[in-house]
Design brief:
The structure is a single chain. The protein is an all-alpha fold. The chain contains 14 helices and no strands. InterPro entries: ABC_BtuC-like, ABC_TroCD. Its main location: membrane. This is Manganese/iron transport system permease protein.
């Protein structure tokens, strides 16, 4: 029992544990839509597209999370605008915005006098650096995202899988798609602090993908994804504490192992 309780004497570990649980629930809420709609690519793109926002906030000595959030929202709106105006498929619009935003971040970074620890934490993640303010922010985002998805669940389902019918009944399909992109951006911003820009997409989709192999309804998929993500996050955090490994990467490895187990024991049709 002391193996579980000893790390809790440290405030930084307790905060990291709470953050992992909150983000796991948040990733389950949004990740289910990402997996069902085949939007894994946008999760990866968004994690890189927030880079100029992080660099910009760093150069202006502002809040890095706020900078990342602004970049995420602009990216989501940019993808939607390019898709509507050009007639290109969504994956093409994502690729254009993703590459452009990431290149902008690199150019901005070249103007930085030094590459500090604060900025590198956003590249590799640092859940042990979560502050009480970060926790309250994660809780607020979880409540807002959960409330929005609950409010538009039926409309989003119809717009996602039968957009022609959705338009016929008067649903704002484009606005619903933009809303989903913005919510994905919000989640990515929070996961970036835990595991960094390079691994954040793993938290968004791995647990939801594992849940998809076992669940046959959206509600059950979200609940199972939240459970699997929490188990993986907590287990990875404890392993990193006792094995002295990078916490973000360890969490991702545990989540990957859970997915492989779900794949091995997946339900047959």
């Amino acid at each position: 029992m002391h193996l579980l309780t000893d790390p809790l004497q440290f405030d930084f570990f307790t905060r990291a544990l709470l953050a992992v649980i909150l983000v796991s629930v948040l990733c389950a809420l949004v990740g289910a839509w990402v997996v069902l709609r085949g939007l894994s690519y946008i999760g990866d793109a968004m994690s890189h597209a927030v880079f100029p926002g992080i660099v910009g906030a760093f150069l202006m000595k502002g809040n890095l999370l706020v900078g990342a959030l602004i970049a995420a929202v602009l990216t989501a709106l940019g993808i939607g605008a390019i898709g509507r105006r050009s007639g290109l498929k969504q994956d093409s619009a994502i690729g254009i915005v993703f590459v452009g935003m990431f290149a902008l971040g690199i150019v901005m970074l070249s103007r930085a006098p030094t590459f500090t620890t604060d900025l590198s934490n956003f590249l590799i993640g640092n859940p042990l650096g979560v502050t009480p303010t970060d926790l309250w922010g994660a809780l607020a985002v979880t409540v807002v995202v959960g409330g929005l998805l609950t409010a538009v669940q039926k409309e989003l389902l119809l717009a996602s899988f039968d957009p022609t019918e959705a338009r016929a009944v008067g649903l704002p399909v484009r606005r619903l798609e933009s809303l989903l992109l913005i919510l994905i951006g919000l989640v990515v911003v929070l996961t970036v602090q835990l595991v960094g820009t390079t691994l954040s997409v793993s938290l968004l989709i791995t647990s939801s993908a594992a849940a998809r192999l076992q669940a046959r309804s959206l509600k059950k998929m979200m609940l199972l994804a939240a459970l699997l993500g929490t188990v993986g996050g907590v287990t990875g955090l404890y392993l990193s504490y006792y094995q002295d490994t990078a916490p973000g990467a360890t969490i991702v490895l545990v989540n990957t192992a859970i997915f492989l187990a779900a794949l091995a024991f997946r339900r047959r049709e």
